[in-house]
Amino acid sequence: xxxxxxxxxxxxxxxxxxxxxxxxxxxxxxxxxxxxxxxxxxxxxxxxxxxxxxxxxxxxxxxxxxxxxxxxxxxxxxxxxxxxxxxxxxxxxxxxxxxxxxxxxxxxxxxxxxxxxxxxxxxxxxxxxxxxxxxxxxxxxxxxxxxxxxxxxxxxxxxxxxxxxxxxxxxxxxxxxxxxxxxxxxxxxxxxxxxxxxxxxxxxx
Length: 205
Prior knowledge:
Blueprint: E1 14-24, E2 29-34, E3 47-51, E4 58-68, E5 71-76, H1 82-88, E6 93-97, H2 111-114, E7 118-121, E8 126-136, E9 141-146, E10 151-156, E11 162-166, E12 171-174, H3 178-181, E13 185-186
Parallel strand pairs: 7-12
Antiparallel strand pairs: 1-2, 1-6, 2-5, 3-4, 3-6, 4-5, 7-8, 8-9, 9-10, 10-13, 11-12
């Protein structure tokens, strides 16, 4: 049994590479939670866009950058006090155009390309569901797959289960997952209280 793949899903115009987590020091620097697989993502970068919920997008120029044991620290031009940093930057996502995505290692995929892919069972030649989320676990990433009855199955992103990922076709082929699907869990469509929508990130799986 086979069926044509779904239309290619839209790629976001911009992706988040960092989240402004906190002010740092007295000169307006901010601590960044990195949202990229590349630990040196901000090296050589001059400009980013700040996206904050309920606020207009804002273009920012990087004055200088450094790091501490918690991650990147960035000073943006025109932000010169911790008060200004907290009021104008904290809680925002730093984004770049998708054309400026960091090249991925071979065999890796951006999370936003995996989310939305249909999951097909190689053994049964049937569609199992759709990936709704990629969970980062200590040992491996896990794909949350929504079934047609709105239950959810978690599939570890390992070669013993995942045979092929074709993001162009929007299709992931799996095998040996019968036991996992017998443990399907009910899901809820309600967002978590206080959850803030985030742009697609430059994290990989």
